[in-house]
Specification:
- The protein is mainly β.
- Helices cover 0% and strands 23% of the residues.
- The radius of gyration is 12 Å and the shape is globular.
- The model has no long low-confidence stretch (mean pLDDT 96).
């Protein structure tokens, strides 16, 4: 399996809303980072869909190499 394109080497800091569903880009090609815009169609990747359990600020992975998708786990510091 190919590695995803690194969108940026730091997390995206975003506010998510309780009960809202999000589609986090896993391929790294989306022009709507950190969210999916359908650019994965030419890859083996699919978006990571998740629903927010509470309204809060989160750090979504920008390097696309996290072990805790869609959240940043610090992997970007080793790239």
């Amino acid at each position: 399996m190919d590695k995803a394109k690194i969108a940026q080497k730091q997390p995206f800091v975003v506010e998510i809303e309780e009960g809202k569903t999000y589609a986090w880009c896993q391929c790294g090609k989306s022009k709507n980072q950190p969210y999916c815009d359908g650019s994965h169609q030419t890859t083996q990747f699919k978006p990571k869909v998740f629903t927010a359990h509470e309204t809060k600020k989160v750090f979504l992975c920008g390097c696309k190499q996290t072990g805790n998708a869609p959240y940043c786990d610090g992997t970007h510091k080793k790239l």
